[in-house]
Amino acid sequence: xxxxxxxxxxxxxxxxxxxxxxxxxxxxxxxxxxxxxxxxxxxxxxxxxxxxxxxxxxxxxxxxxxxxxxxxxxxxxxxxxxxxxxxxxxxxxxxxxxxxxxxxxxxxxxxxxxxxxxxxxxxxxxxxxxxxxxxxxx
Length: 138
What we know:
Blueprint: H1 15-28, E1 30-35, E2 38-43, E3 48-53, H2 64-91, H3 94-109, H4 114-117
Antiparallel strand pairs: 1-2, 2-3
Helix pairs in contact: 1-2
């Protein structure tokens, strides 16, 4: 028996919720690091959100550039790892695999012709605003 939080087949979250989390992660994931008087905040895509330097804590100004570069790169890697984890969760969800398989098979299944899809309608008069009734199938 599944818990109240579980969905069909025991999934703990809906596919829509999982995709929303992925979208949020791709757009908003970031990581912050602080070391040696330098603070950086970096998005997963590499955009630097913030750099703050505590001038009183920095004794070696010559090492400041390499320190900032290192912190930015490490923060970006952390943010990207957060995104990658959610991508793996979505990628290995059997519901996603099923949809991907259906999309992949679509060209092989072909399309129905318009005559197979269209339903017959009784033409009752010329008034385009008057509802039409369905013809009874033979």
